[in-house]
Design a protein that fits this description.
By secondary structure, the protein is α/β, with parallel strands linked by helices. It is 42% helix and 22% strand. It has a five-stranded parallel sheet with strand order 3-4-5-6-7, with helices on one face. Strands 1-2 form a two-stranded antiparallel ribbon. Helix 1 packs parallel to helix 2 and helix 3 runs parallel beside helix 4. The relative contact order is 0.15.
Length: 144
């Protein structure tokens, strides 16, 4: 089977479909569907402070996180620091859960040209890419 980001390609469940339900429900659905890979979202599925509990629940069910995602639209106007912090948290969670990547989002901004948008996103994500690299995590950009 082909490999992507160093893992076998398999079907995974995205936790974004369970944003207001307990994480346990998402994990139980994965077991029922015989799917062992998950895309988990911070903060939609869990908070970083609950990481130990998430690790235990996933290990108990023999489930794997293949990506940690955040709704971090770095090109949107306003203070990007809270969005950057979510990416930092996602990197920490990915490292702890063994997920090889963290997924980010671009965000539409009608006040910027495409070139300005790419520049703003790049500037905002660069320090996080350096952190991710140190932790062995790849930052990806959702292909919307």
């Amino acid at each position: 089977m082909p490999k992507l980001l160093g893992i076998d390609e398999h079907l995974a469940i995205s936790g974004t479909e369970y944003p207001h339900r307990p994480l346990k429900e998402l994990l139980d659905v994965a077991i029922q569907l015989e799917i062992s890979n998950l895309e988990l979202w911070i903060p939609h599925n869990f908070a970083l402070k609950d990481l130990t509990k998430v690790e235990q629940e996933m290990a108990r069910r023999n489930l794997s996180a293949v990506v940690i995602s955040t709704w971090t639209q770095l090109n949107l106007p306003g203070d990007i620091r809270p969005r950057q912090d979510l990416i930092r948290q996602s990197i920490e969670a990915a490292k702890a859960l063994g997920a090889p990547s963290v997924n980010t989002y671009f965000g539409a901004n009608q006040d910027r040209t495409p070139e300005q948008s790419v520049s703003a996103y790049t500037e905002a994500v660069l320090p996080l890419v350096e952190l991710a690299e140190k932790e062995g995590i790849i930052i990806t950009l959702e292909n919307e």
